[in-house]
Amino acid sequence: xxxxxxxxxxxxxxxxxxxxxxxxxxxxxxxxxxxxxxxxxxxxxxxxxxxxxxxxxxxxxxxxxxxxxxxxxxxxxxxxxxxxxxxxxxxxxxxxxxxxxxxxxxxxxxxxxxxxxxxxxxxxxxxxxxxxxxxxxxxxxxxxxxxxxxxxxxxxxxxxxxxxxxxxxxxxxxxxxxxxxxxxxxxxxxxxxxxxxxxxxxxxxxxxxxxxxxxxxxxxxxxxxxxxxxxxxxxxxxxxxxxxxxxxxxxx
Length: 252
Prior knowledge:
By secondary structure, the protein is mostly helical. It has one domain (14-250). It has helices at residues 14-33, 39-45, 48-62, 66-87, 98-101, 105-112, 120-135, 139-152, 159-171, 176-191, 193-198, 217-221, 233-250. α1 (14-33) packs antiparallel against α2 (39-45) and α4 packs parallel to α13 (233-250). It is globular. 31% of the residues are buried.
């Protein structure tokens, strides 16, 4: 049985997109930890995830070995999780005694991974697994991975919203107009909780900061050719580096 093949008809300038994503992610994390008084930094930061979700969809189509791609993202997820949990204040700083327990994998797992807010790489990894099973038409495996996503959704960064967004980008990546309509509608629905919870009309329309993620769509849907070439390891290395820098800046 042949796998599902797709042609990318959205913006293929992913190196430029990744630079925008890591820049806005840096602004977001600085706004969350160092400058919480500036709400605009968190709003700008909403641009990052849709771009990462889209680049994952593109990466799954372009990669020569999706298994290695998934493994690379998973390894990075596991390695950066303690730094992410500590820097982003999901775990009390200096609470784990690394000097005496560095070899206790069970304690490390319970302290940094179990029932913990997980780094974005775990969401991206689950998205890759779902696309992999769909591309290979392994639908039983798809159901198993989807069930795992559902079980872990409270721990995954962006939860099922993030998983669905990755799948939407992949499913409609060869149909630009349909993709724009469905993705914009879904992101708007998620960003307007009043619309989601009470339907329309509502007495008071409440807006999630996530609505500002719509600012990423022109970058994704307008073709560009900046000729920027970004090594795939730039993001993998930038992520822990920027977390370490924020940790040092924010530590009294």
